[in-house]
């Protein structure tokens, strides 16, 4: 029965998100336990006279780990690609090179069968796109961006020279988007972020998920210098330390969640899309406009954010303040 129920969202991904055309070649990258989702999408693609190719890979050990070279080359050659994976390959050279080569992609990280039936994917992406684009435009090239929350977050950085990214689950040639998160984001200029991050909502990686306690993070000159909290904070501390890569501490992204159909469930692309939230990405930023490649990219999600960009109020306590 779930295969039948998933077909509606599968069709939406192909028609609305990727806008596939008859005769195009679609690459679906997946893992063994995500095959039901990949098969659902491939079945609808075949109905639409699109040629689906399913590439099944061994699950990556870490988020942001590159896929096998064979798959990376196939992504570059495809007209469009979909990544249905557990560990994220979003922030990889494989994705960057594929879109640079003219492919277009949708990333479905940590997707469950239930997410293919209800939740964030039910949103009207086209209607929500203008607001997403407007916020991305305000973040772009900002000299000073300040983020605060009632829980103690107080972070300042520069995005001078950085593009704003509007990810609203619909792509053209040479673009990618995550789904179902709708978000406007920007990558801070390296070495400019300073202040404190207090994470109150979710870290949907490493099995952490929804937070049971606040996690306090100090930032200096663009890098995390300390992390404090309870057992969930310790999971993050130990994982980052084990990476043996200073770049994992890089402040890589500020993203604003803008999908009113998303809710906190402890999974990456639902949690990041919750309307009126903000996430700070750490680690890799190469697909967002930055130059840092790290061994991971994790997002730290907060509620009730206030964001001011070059003196203009964009969000206040989680309420969007611009048209």
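Sequence proposed for the structure above (323 residues):
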């Amino acid at each position: 029965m779930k295969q039948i129920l998933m077909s509606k969202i599968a069709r939406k991904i192909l028609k609305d998100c990727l806008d596939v055309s008859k005769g195009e070649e679609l690459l679906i990258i997946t893992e063994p336990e995500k095959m039901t989702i990949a098969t659902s999408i491939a079945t609808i693609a075949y109905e639409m006279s699109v040629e689906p190719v399913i590439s099944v890979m061994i699950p990556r050990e870490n988020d942001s780990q590159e896929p096998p070279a064979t798959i990376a080359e196939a992504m570059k050659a495809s007209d469009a690609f979909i990544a249905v994976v557990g560990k994220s390959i979003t922030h990889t050279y494989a994705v960057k090179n594929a879109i640079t080569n003219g492919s277009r992609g949708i990333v479905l990280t940590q997707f469950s069968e239930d997410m293919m039936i209800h939740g964030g994917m039910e949103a009207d992406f086209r209607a929500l796109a203008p607001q997403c684009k407007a916020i991305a435009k305000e973040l772009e090239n900002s000299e000073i961006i300040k983020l605060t929350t009632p829980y103690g977050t107080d972070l300042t950085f520069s995005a001078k020279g950085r593009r704003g990214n509007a990810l609203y689950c619909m792509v053209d040639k040479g673009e990618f988007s995550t789904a179902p998160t709708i978000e406007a984001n920007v990558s801070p200029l390296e070495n400019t972020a300073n202040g404190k991050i207090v994470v109150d909502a979710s870290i949907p990686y490493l099995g952490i998920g929804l937070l049971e306690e606040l996690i306090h993070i100090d930032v200096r000159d663009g890098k995390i210098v300390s992390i404090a909290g309870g057992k969930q904070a310790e999971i993050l501390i130990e994982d980052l330390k084990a990476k043996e890569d200073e770049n994992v501490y890089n402040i890589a992204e500020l993203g604003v969640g803008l999908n009113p159909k998303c809710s906190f469930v402890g999974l990456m692309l639902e949690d990041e899309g919750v309307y009126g939230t903000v996430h700070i990405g750490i680690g890799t930023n190469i697909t967002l406009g930055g130059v840092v490649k790290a061994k991971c990219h994790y997002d730290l999600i907060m509620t009730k954010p206030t964001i001011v960009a070059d003196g203009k109020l964009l969000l206040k306590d989680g309420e969007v303040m611009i048209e």
